[in-house]
Amino acid sequence: MSYDKPLPDVDDPLTRPFWQGLRERRLTIQRCGRCGALRWPAAPICPECLAPGAEWTDVAADGELWSYVVYRRALSPAFADEIPYAVGVVALDAGPHLLSRISGPVDTLKVGARMTARYEDVSPTVTLLRWVTESPGPENGGGSSGDHND
Amino acid sequence: MAVRGQAAIVAVGSTKQGELPGRSADEVAVEAISLALDEAGLTKADVDGLITCRAGMGRGGVDTGVGSLLGINPRYSATLDYGTCNFSLHLGTMAIMAGLADVIVLAYGATQRSQRVNFGVPMGVDLAAASGYVHIAGPAGLALQRHKALYGTTDEQFGQIAVSQREWARMNPLAIFTKPLTIEDYLAKPYLVEPLRRDDVTMISDGGAALVLTSAERARDFPKAPVYVLGIAETTALRGDRDPENLMRPWLANVARDVYASAGLRPEDIDALYIQDPTAVWVLQMLEYYGFCGLGEGGPFLAEGHTRPGGDLPVNTNGGQLSESYMWGWLHLCEAVRQLRGECGPRQVPNADVAMYCSTMTFTKGAASIISTHR
Ligand SMILES: [Zn+2]
């Protein structure tokens, strides 16, 4: 069955490099050619120094879960079949906060958890970014050095 | 020139709330204006200023439309694109102080319930919209989840907002939701957008509200006691989500600082508090930023019952948007005026002398006003 939910215009000149990046499994966002500020969401000029245009740069698609919500009721009919689903804001290690769908179980999410991106091709032209909880490394038994068992 | 005591609200009007099928937003706004003019003992010919507010989702509320229906050519008129009445009160106060008008009507009408306006439809499709991030409950829920994680706020504490406002609404004949709601009832209900339940989110309703504002000199000539504007303040956060912590709205602290300075008052001076509440999260945030408790201490503060009937800080004594009606904050100011005049019957706050009304335009603007029957 084809994907029938709201889709972005991936040919919008302002955001095309971002969507193209997701297609290629990269997270790419704007960076000001003059002052170097990372820019999210995309804009035609730099809101920091007002320089026109932008360069695009790949950033690590990892960060910390700043907050999340779980849609338990369909407030938009388009997403009714996915209830319950979670949406979260991830504070990228590079700085900007990026909101997107969280894939996987919704009942074990925690603010502050390490998150990483997965890429999902939802149509022949559109790829969406989904956050997933970073799986703990097998060599250290599942956590950072700050972990304890009590 | 200082704002304090320069302008006064001399009349308010509010229509039936709920469903008003077959009527336009402008028509309802004019009905509210008529009610306010009646209370003021004025006719429309006395009005020389009109400040309207665009109805939700852009259906009506423009001054040229409302003024045409009202059949007046005032000296001054303007439309604000955003609601809550606070911004309208401030613009009206400025217009009076500048001599642009002497008798200004502030008005709002909405028929979004009857028109079945769908607040779940995104404006354009970006990554958020493609992720199913819809409705005000989304960002409000994110802010609450963050608050819970940072400060340990519990559902039981947070639920006191909806419960307290329902207790107030049960004493307000204008309120739409008056069924009893205990904290146990609240906690037993399912999440809508976790961590928010249905009772934490405003309904959609039809209705109208209007206020008459005039100069302090003229204010003494009206049938009802004038309610003076003692202080006003605003700020913006137009950078929006470019500021990573914007959902927590830290800039509200600036409005608080400025409104207290404008009136020369402190939080302890406020007898009745009004907080515009599209969701209960706004109440939690503003109790903290306006200095009624410390940052992060809103949960325990609510659990202590300060905001409930009989508490020492009555909040949203009309029931707010959670229980009374969704009038984009306009009824909060009408209620504050009625409380200060002592007209509120069983829900009257004893010796209410000073009221404050705090509101926001989503995540981009904040405003507050302090008003009193004393200059
Ligand atoms: Zn720049």
Automatic annotation (TrEMBL), chain A:
Name of the protein: DNA-binding protein
Pfam family of the protein (one): OB_ChsH2_C
Domain ChsH2 rubredoxin-like zinc ribbon: 19-52
Residues annotated as domain ChsH2 C-terminal OB-fold: 56-119
Automatic annotation (TrEMBL), chain B:
Gene3D superfamilies reported in the protein's UniProt record: 3.40.47.10
CDD domains given in the database record: SCP-x_thiolase
Superkingdom, natural source: Bacteria
Molecular function, one GO term: acyltransferase activity, transferring groups other than amino-acyl groups
Pfam families in the cross-refs: Thiolase_C_1
Domain named Thiolase C-terminal: residues: 252-369
Alphabetical list of InterPro entries matching this protein: Thiolase, Thiolase-like, Thiolase_C_2
PANTHER family membership: ACETYL-COA C-ACETYLTRANSFERASE, NON-SPECIFIC LIPID-TRANSFER PROTEIN-LIKE 2
Protein name: Thiolase C-terminal domain-containing protein
